[in-house]
Amino acid sequence: MIDLAKVSKTFSGKRQVTALEDVDLAIARGEMVAIIGPSGSGKSTLLNLIGGLDTPSSGQIEIDGSRLSGLPDDDLTRMRRDKIGFIFQFFNLLPTLTCFENVAIPLHLRGWTKKKIDERAKELLSLVGLASRVEHLPEELSGGERQRCAIARALSVYPPVLLADEPTGNLDTHTGADILKLIRDLHQRLGSTVLIVTHDQHVAESCERVIALCDGRIVEDRVGKASLRLAQERQVGDLPYA
């Protein structure tokens, strides 16, 4: 689903900074993966490159069989619009638009009919628990509700890839746990491939796979505790009755 081959990213300025160096990574369809590491390790750079928001200095990135570096700008825009959903730490909702209107934006860009947009936007807001907040502006919502609205917007076209950059980082512990549970539930329901950049170890261990970065390189790639728990549950379920 997502394949990176020898991907590097260098930023030039007063001095040259290498954010990523020779990263090889393969993520299968339907995986839920945490990307962890200290500040400056390259986590957000990696996410931006996978999402087509930035281009690598060298190497190749493929999403669902399409090589990003070979796509014309219009095709790359359509790729982001149709195949990738983004969830940001600070929500990035348009403040003058209601919940409904924020969720509907990607659907308008796809040229959907008003009836179809109404149905999908209301369906998603209900799915994330905001059926009663459809006409509310972002400033009228709590932090958790804003993030739920942002998740609904990210899922508006049911993208095969969902990228989340510190989705619980701007929330209190309880609300963050609720948002994490929502992302896990939606992952299981929709089958999207989910990548979460996080500093929160609890968030990381709730994923099936954990990838650690340090100084722009992958230093660890292991099974997450969530995957281990699932395997244990399956083993118990397979035991014969006494």
Question: Can you walk me through this structure?
Answer:
It is a single chain. The chain has 242 residues and is of the alpha/beta class. The protein contains eight helices and ten strands. It has one domain: P-loop containing nucleotide triphosphate hydrolases (Rossmann fold, 3-Layer(aba) Sandwich), CATH 3.40.50.300. It has helices at residues 43-50, 73-83, 99-109, 114-127, 143-154, 173-190, 201-205, 225-238, and strands at 2-11, 17-27, 32-36, 58-63, 66-67, 84-87, 161-165, 193-197, 209-214, 217-223. The longest helix has 18 residues, at 173-190. The chain is globular.
Query: What count of domains describes the coordinates?
Result: 1
Supply the CATH class. Alpha Beta
Helix content: 25-40%
Q: Biggest sheet, strands in spatial order? A: 6-7-8-3-9-10
Tell me the CATH architecture: 3-Layer(aba) Sandwich
Structural class: alpha/beta
What composes the largest sheet? 6 strands, mixed
Rg over CA atoms: 19 Å
Strand share of the residues? 25-35%
Number of H/I helices: 8
Q: Shape from CA axes?
A: globular
CATH homologous superfamily annotation: P-loop containing nucleotide triphosphate hydrolases
Looking at the structure, the CATH topology is Rossmann fold
- Any low-confidence stretches, pLDDT <50, length ≥5? none
What gap, in angstroms, lies between the N and C termini?
42 Å
The counted number of beta strands is: 10
Oligomer: single chain
